[in-house]
Design a protein that fits this description.
By secondary structure, the protein is of the alpha/beta class. It is 62% helix and 10% strand. The strands form 2 sheets. Strands 6-7-8-3-9-10 form a 6-stranded mixed beta sheet.
């Protein structure tokens, strides 16, 4: 793949990852602003409580009339109560806004994973890491960086303004201390943690992949004697992550210690300046204690800076996925959960497409052309490794051709948004995932909001409806993790029903009858084709040649090249791969039927 093709979506105009992710928070800006203001109000209440309490204690030492202290006493009580109430309200408002926002982010990540290019890992562990650990980093970006930093900055400015009313000189010293605590120390913390923190997110993702491989792939690893090697690799990554986190903890301890010293030093300097400025004794104490509290609040920016560095890796990984996922467009779910029909399509063409997975290697596809005009039924056959799956990957956009063109109604495939492309061209692809959910929930991934009649029609076409009706829970039957409660054939039928329910203008079917006996395979293929609207195109990849006599064209691939093409009747009579395979399969079919009798 050429470098320009790899960097097409990462040009110089790309926003920073944090800005890309935060742009998605615009619909929740009012909620987040409210949370930031509540955070500032909470910190200011704490600062005012310390200052008022100090004034009250020092003033009370002089035994003035109780009436002179009444306002301060009530203020202390009110500030103590309001601080707790404001903190609770701030956390409630902040988490409400962030959790709403994170729901959108996860939706976009899922859409991005569905439409990812082949040069990015599709491993389930990596996907899990992006959906869990990396999304937590996005959450922390708002809750531990943006909101508290905004609140601390507002309180710092307010504290300096209040100090100006008592002593301008002391206010200047306080401003200097707050700049050190809120700007210099955060920059130092960032420099100390940046080098190691950038490695945390990739290591966490790798460990997630390791855990998935070691659990789900335990049998395969044991069969190939690779369990010990996999465990050593996972242990090495775990130890590397532990070392990095220890370094981060040590750096954090050093910066926090410097912050404590800075708070004390600033308070002492403010007291000295206040004494030399002729400030009365009561206000000297107030300024000193308030300075300690203000600098402590400003030190929140140190924690925010540290968290920012730590979450940048995860945020960048999320930004990589959500950058090219557009906002919901016409054709997606409508209000009330109904789904709009897929847009009409006139013609999809594959023109002289060549694909090489490595430079200098033999092409997986070599100048292949296929016409997928609306309503055509096209089958692609050939030996294993012929390039059939690569052809489907080119159509879905998972693989970029080195040369040639794939277009939909005259528009290059790469120029279409991923959601639009997935609505136009999709279907049952290799290793279609079945989720640990109910039958209904798995089917609704094909088309949200489909009713029971539509679900029944799709499962009937896939040959699964009788099984669903036999289950005590019906559509609510849980299929288990990766469809563990289903047989291989039932998993395939469920995935096929989901593809039929989506009803894209170009329906891709990759071995839709795999795992079924010959009679069931013929019946399922025939009913699936009958359930597909006549104006929709079907591209079938299969090893089984029975049932292809109704197809408009059969394309025979071998080593990435088109060996033969035509209708079944023509190819079955012409010398070549298709005729040989047809005779072999027919002989095997007769033998199977004889054994069955």
């Amino acid at each position: 793949m050429s470098d320009d093709r790899r960097t097409r979506h990462h040009g110089p105009g790309r926003l920073a990852p944090e800005r890309q992710v935060l742009r998605l928070a615009r619909p929740y800006l009012k909620r987040l602003t409210g949370a930031a203001l509540l955070a500032a109000a909470t910190d200011f209440a704490a600062l005012a409580l310390m200052a008022t309490s100090t004034w009250l204690l020092i003033s009370a030492a002089g035994r003035p009339p109780l009436d002179a202290l009444t306002v301060a006493i009530v203020s202390v009580r009110g500030l103590a109560i309001s601080r707790g109430v404001l903190r609770y309200t701030e956390r409630l408002a902040g988490h409400d806004a962030v959790l709403r926002y994170i729901t959108d982010v996860r939706t976009r990540i899922f859409a991005g994973l569905v439409g990812r290019r082949a040069d990015v890992s599709h491993r389930s562990g990596d996907a899990l890491s992006r959906l869990v650990s990396d999304v937590e980093d996005v959450q922390n970006l708002l809750l531990r960086v943006v909101v508290p930093a905004a609140g601390a900055a507002l309180v710092s400015i307010t504290a300096v303004g209040c100090a100006l009313l008592v002593s301008p000189a002391a206010a200047l010293v306080l401003a200097a201390g707050l700049l050190l605590a809120g700007v210099v120390l955060p920059l130092i913390a960032m420099r100390l943690t940046r080098h190691t923190a950038d490695r945390v997110a990739p290591l966490r993702a790798a460990l997630t992949v390791d855990s998935i491989d070691l659990t789900h792939g335990a049998a395969d690893l044991a069969a190939f004697g690779a369990t010990d090697a996999a465990l050593r690799a996972a242990d090495g990554r775990a130890q590397a992550l532990a070392r990095i986190e220890r370094r981060l903890a040590a750096a954090g301890f050093a910066v926090d210690g410097a912050g404590v010293l800075l708070a004390g030093g600033t308070a002492a300097a403010v007291v000295v300046v206040a004494l030399n400025s002729g400030v009365s004794g009561v206000w000297i104490g107030v300024l000193g204690v308030a300075t300690l509290s203000a600098v402590e609040i400003a030190l929140v920016l140190v924690g925010a800076a540290r968290h920012w560095v730590q979450v940048r890796g995860g945020v960048a990984r999320v930004a990589e996925l959500v950058a090219d996922v557009p906002a919901p467009e016409p054709g997606g779910p409508l209000p009330g959960g109904r789904s709009a029909p897929a847009p009409a399509l006139g013609r999809c063409t594959i023109e002289d497409v060549t694909v090489r997975y490595r430079a200098g290697a033999a092409p997986a596809l070599d100048r292949v052309s296929v016409d997928l005009t609306a309503g055509r039924r096209v089958a692609v056959v050939g030996p294993s490794g012929a390039g059939k799956s690569t052809l489907l990957a080119v159509l879905t956009g998972a693989v970029h051709p080195d040369s040639g063109r794939v277009s939909i109604d005259g528009v290059d495939l790469d120029h279409l948004p991923s959601q639009e492309r997935s609505r136009l061209v999709t279907g049952l692809l290799a290793e279609a995932h079945v989720f640990h959910a109910t039958v209904r929930e798995n089917l609704l991934l094909g088309r949200a909001g489909a009713g029971d009649d539509e679900l029944a029609a799709a499962t009937a076409a896939a040959g699964l409806l009788d099984w669903v009706r036999d289950q005590p829970d019906g559509w609510s039957t849980v299929v288990g993790e990766e469809g563990a409660q289903l047989s291989g054939g039932q998993r395939q039928r469920l995935a096929l029903a989901r593809a039929l329910l989506a009803a894209p203008p170009v329906l891709l079917l990759d071995e839709p009858t795999e795992g079924l006996d010959p009679a069931a395979a013929d019946a399922v293929l025939a009913s699936a084709l009958a359930a597909t609207p006549a104006e929709h195109t079907v591209l079938l990849v299969t090893h089984r040649l029975r049932g292809l006599d109704e197809f408009d064209e059969i394309v025979v691939l071998d080593a990435g090249r088109v060996l033969q093409r035509g209708r079944h009747a023509e190819l079955a009579q012409a010398p070549g791969w298709y005729r040989e395979q047809w005779l072999l399969q027919e002989a095997a079919e007769r033998g199977y039927l004889a054994l069955g009798r």
